[in-house]
From TrEMBL:
<feature type="domain" description="Serine/threonine specific protein phosphatases">
    <location>
        <begin position="64"/>
        <end position="69"/>
    </location>
</feature>
<dbReference type="InterPro" id="IPR006186">
    <property type="entry name" value="Ser/Thr-sp_prot-phosphatase"/>
</dbReference>
<dbReference type="InterPro" id="IPR050126">
    <property type="entry name" value="Ap4A_hydrolase"/>
</dbReference>
<dbReference type="InterPro" id="IPR004843">
    <property type="entry name" value="Calcineurin-like_PHP"/>
</dbReference>
<dbReference type="Pfam" id="PF00149">
    <property type="entry name" value="Metallophos"/>
</dbReference>
<protein>
    <submittedName>
        <fullName>Serine/threonine protein phosphatase</fullName>
    </submittedName>
</protein>
<dbReference type="InterPro" id="IPR029052">
    <property type="entry name" value="Metallo-depent_PP-like"/>
</dbReference>
Length: 236
């Protein structure tokens, strides 16, 4: 039975991601918990690397959507209304990264027209992000970007938005049958450290090392029962 190698919140830090992947054994399942993009300099390269891995390794690569993928898609569909919020949350860096690979005349257009050009030029990459699930269960483990509605014992009560946006769900006892591995909330806000956090009852595992905040990019190796086997990190 394959082990699970899990990483989250890469945020355009392609070189850190590449280094972390050197610890991954392709016989294990690679699980990426969203936020490939924004804030960092190479969001497009990260997206295309994950697509390449998915094409090469099939079901041994799992990508779960994050709130930043959601923000990008919402911005491109409604740039006038969503531009300020998206750019304020690191979207400006992603737009610059996407545009630099397009002709100069496109980079000189207003952002509303740029959004339309990006939708046309990056259809395949955007469709990959759009179709990604918002959670995945493997064995005894529930993988989410942000978390789930921990007031309930089943997942049916959790909305798509909660899977990618919820905060502080880990402060409530996990009543589900799964161990939840999540990113989204930088670890320094959970326990004042960038290192992986395991709740006292071992029912929650948080892994977002705040790479974009000069923290670190973390990965964990688990078995399908949810037991931690190894920890890995790449310093920003």
């Amino acid at each position: 039975m394959s082990n699970l190698f899990v990483v989250s919140d890469i945020h355009g830090h392609y070189k850190h991601f590449e280094e972390l992947l050197t610890y991954w054994n392709p016989e294990d399942i690679l699980v990426i918990l969203g936020d490939l993009i924004d804030r960092g300099p190479q969001s497009l390269q990260v997206i295309e690397k994950v697509i390449e891995l998915k094409q090469s390794y099939g079901d041994n690569v799992v990508f779960v959507k994050g709130n930043h993928e959601d923000m990008l898609l919402n911005f491109l569909n409604n740039p006038m209304e969503k531009q300020e919020h998206y750019y304020m949350n690191g979207g400006k860096e992603t737009m610059q990264n996407l545009l630099v690979h397009l002709p100069t005349y496109i980079r000189e257009k207003p952002y509303i027209l740029q959004a339309n050009e990006i939708k046309q030029h990056y259809k395949y990459q955007l469709e990959f992000l759009k179709l990604a699930p918002v959670y995945k269960t493997i064995g005894n483990v529930l993988f989410t970007h942000a978390g789930f509605n921990s007031e309930f014992a089943t997942l049916e009560e959790t909305t798509e938005r909660d899977f990618i946006w919820i905060r502080k769900h880990y402060e409530i006892t996990n009543k589900t049958s799964y161990i939840n591995v999540f990113g989204h909330t930088p670890l320094t806000y959970i326990h004042e450290s960038n290192d992986v956090w395991l709740s006292d009852d071992k029912r929650y595992i948080a892994i977002d090392g705040g790479c974009y905040m000069s923290g670190q990019l973390n990965a964990v190796l688990l078995n399908q029962q949810g037991e931690l086997l190894e920890l890995y990190k790449v310093q920003s």
